[in-house]
Amino acid sequence: MNETKTPAWRRLDNAAKIFPPTSNNQDTKVFRFACRLKEEVEPKLLQQALDKTMKSFPLYASIIRKGLFWYYFETSRLKPKVEEESKPPCSALYHEDTKNLLFEVTYYKKRINLEIYHALTDGVGALQFLKTIVRHYLVLKHKEVFKDYIPEIDYDASTAEKEADGFKAHFSKGKSAKNPSLGKAYKIRGERLEGDILKVVNGIVSVKAVLKEAHEYDTTLTVYLGAILIASIGKEMAIKDRKRPVVVSVPVNLRPYFKSASARNFFSVVHVPYYFGDKEPELTEIISYLKSFFEKELTTEKFQLRLNRLVALEHNYITRAIPLVLKKPTLRFAHHLSSNEVTTSFSNIGKVTMPKELEPYIDAFDVCVSTTKVQVCLCSYGDKLSISFTSPFISSQVQKHFFRTLTSRGIEVELSTNVMDNLGEISG
Known about the structure:
The chain is α+β, with helices and mostly antiparallel strands. It has two domains: 9-145, Chloramphenicol Acetyltransferase (2-Layer Sandwich), CATH 3.30.559; 194-427, Chloramphenicol Acetyltransferase, CATH 3.30.559.10. It is built from 14 helices and 15 strands. Strands 10-9-11-13-14-8-15 form a seven-stranded mixed beta sheet. It has a five-stranded mixed beta sheet with strand order 5-6-7-2-12, with helices on one face. The protein starts with 8 loop residues before the first strand and ends with a helix. The relative contact order is 0.18. It comes from Cellulosilyticum lentocellum (strain ATCC 49066 / DSM 5427 / NCIMB 11756 / RHM5). This is Alcohol acetyltransferase.
């Protein structure tokens, strides 16, 4: 790829600043969205679709550079090149002092993959990027069908709106608040896979079937599956471990709360602690706890207070005056302390929609993310709900408990994994 330096640059948003100094081969801060089509992918058409998409997302042509006080984005002339998938999921994309783009588009048989570095955007922004690629690809692939009408996806934000820093735009100098420290959380431990490989276990279930079960408990799909995740972790806890909480980190998309269309990071994180104590709670009890917790915490007022605190720290004169070389170890230590307060992460991207004219060509979407723990990501397309566990561990006990809970309630699960010898353990 040829590169020509340009003077354009942008600050990293508030959420992105922690990623460059804390990324490594074990924790790449990369996530993957994939779209599974009903026909084999044609690489040349996919490249054309990507080239068209880049015109609408110019920020994504950026590389990360180091300044005296902070990292920053610099616009490059690098051109992304579509390749056949050849690396393990969520492999490193950011390499300090290397000028490369922060995303990759690959394909494998009927699947289009987008892998992207979290400093560039969050799950919502990445999904809009992939949806745009898929839309252009299908229009090119079936040009005889779309010669008179080109379907539009539900994302018509201007370039300025896409590149807006939501944290900066909605910062207020009023009151602020931080998440209370929960101390050390319960940690899932085990023997790790060799070579920094990330194991992905994906289950496809019926949205209608899961919603039916969730409604039996008078709750949402997110609360229902989050409760099953907590219960599944609880089954692996020794009695001595139950003095520590199971803390679930839940990323929350802030766009609906603040009416933003940013294609950059714009999310908050809510930490949900659950204490098992000496008892073995019924699923109903965990569901009731989660419902109550979310009702209190998922409000615009609470998110505004958290946003104010994070941006105020960034704007603090002392913080700003510290050179980056001294900030980096401090940020890494703070990240380490924060990581100790979390057991697992649970992210529901929600319902993926595409124009009805494109639906006949699309089978499913899924999402997964790099982690040093056990992470769960959800998204749905049509009646297919994709539930992806990522983990660096050989054992799949938590995953097994989770999916067996669903099958015990009559919900059929279609399982797949990139580590083939673990499927029998889960489904057996």
